[in-house]
Please model this.
Amino acid sequence: MKIKNRNEILNDIILDGKKHPRGWQAIFGQDNQRLTRDYYLMNPEIGIYYMKEYDKNPFIVKGIGSKIARKIDDEIETEIAKNEADFGIIQGDFQKIIKNIQKGIKPDKIFNEAIKGKKDLGLTIPVRGKASSSEERFKNLNQFLSNNRKKINLKIEEIANEDGLYQPYG
Model:
């Protein structure tokens, strides 16, 4: 398993999302022990991605992730089938957006076209699906995938220690 930085893993997910746009599911949660936000992004054709991130400061988000499984086991499938809301990863081309606004296209039309997935006016949503932020589902998924997450947890602790995330003020 290769651990990648936040942007690299998001790019991998977006590339996979362009190949397999349907069937994505996600479970989001908090790792209070490591002070991170955790994300499981899954697709039956792709497998499972796991990401961890934290705010280094109000302007910088740091994180890592990896593909932790090539397939989704039946136990996990049952757990993620209970999703509550929609999610998506938005990809933007700011120069294209600005040019379209200068042509008179209103920002809400640019956004609405991205949601519909019809016309690329500078925003696209290559990965979309159903998500849950239920603490119970997140905890259950963590238990199912505990061995797959160990290396990522150790690496995020190392990065956070270097940033002083766990050091007290004073």
About this structure: The helical segments are 6-19, 74-80, 94-102, 107-116, 135-144, 146-163. The mean pLDDT is 91. The longest strand covers residues 47-57. Residues 4-88+129-163 form one domain.
